[in-house]
Amino acid sequence: MNLQTAPGTYELDCSATVYPYLATKRVNQIFRMALELDTDVDPDVLRTALERMPARFPTMFVTLRKDRDTYRLQTMRDPARAVCPEPEIYCRPFSLADGCDLLRVTYRKNRLGIEVFHAITDGAGGMILLKTIAAEYYRTLGETIPAENGVCDCTQPARPCETEDSFRANYEPEIDGVSRSGIHAFQVQAKGPFMPWHHTEIRIPLSKLKTVTKAHGATITEYAAALYLDVLRDLPGAGADGKPIALSVPINLRPVFGSETLRNFSLYFLATVPQKAQRPSFDDILQNVHAQLRAGTDKELLRRTIHQNVSQAQLPVFVRSPRAVKKAILRVGAAMYGEGLYTSTFSNLGIFTMPQALSAHVRAFHAMLGESPVNHIKILSYCTNGVLSLMFSSRLVSHEPEDALIAKLREAGLAPDIVRMP
Predict the structure, then answer these.
(1) Is the domain of 276 the same as that of 375?
(2) Could you give the CA distance from residue 59 to residue 61 in angstroms, rounded to a whole number?
């Protein structure tokens, strides 16, 4: 179900519905991805390379359209206007005015990047978009880059399965939903004023990390999430008011349901520090994370969660309400069931792969999460060339959380490399 209401116009997918309504002038939900190439990016070649992209990615090269009742996405007619120099501050908010572009394609010296409003897609879709932009850039320069390893063929239009809303496509009206209620979690507060969103990349050799995780009987995601929870529970104020310490862990649903959508198709589940009379050990936290993530990826639970999300979005009182009323409803819902239910986000993109012909030009891949209204620190992880990167994003003046995580990695013998970014 692609919910195309007119040629080149799409309804927001079920997961994306909330993002325009909750956004403010200061904070949008944005993520960034970038490649460091072997030569400087030529912006004129890049603009030419994008000419065929809207037909291949009609739900990503889009502007925001709004009327009295709702927001919609409209495919760009001039994709070259998405190209801009890389900003000094990453993940600047989009204006979200009527007709506002929701994608930036950025360049600075040898760095080619994208900044994406989350209503367009999630991290899995973003990686495909970035790789295809890079491939089309080199195709424009006369090279042959095959359409494989997540690179799309821009001589072909988008397939219906790529523009579908996979939440609605996998909605089963006859099953029961799940409750979205929960307890508000501990939030990390600043010592003094907040500073602009800044980033620290922590790089760990994958071979060493696998040795450590194998010894603990855990996956990389489970081990890293548990280590991060171990850091969070030692921050000032954690646990003092009895609030849980919780991580939101996104789950990519595409492999579970056989989806090929390029739109959002992820759900979020919580991993927590266990509540015990005595201070939980790291092994206690790891066992809890293991059990919670395994339970959270149960296909029956995923079906019920999809049912709950879609059925709420389809309530007649919501669908028929003016946009201003929808905003009020969603903001009340976000206050009750949104970011307040977790302390931070830990999102694992997995392994970033490319065709060999493209990989020969790529020196590094980076990705990072932008600001959000409540959570002031987040981690995004990804693996390239035998190295796992933990990209830590923060609004705190203090670097205490990321420095504590670095110290724990060193204690585990993992010898991380550290790169501080703007």
Answers:
(1) yes
(2) 6
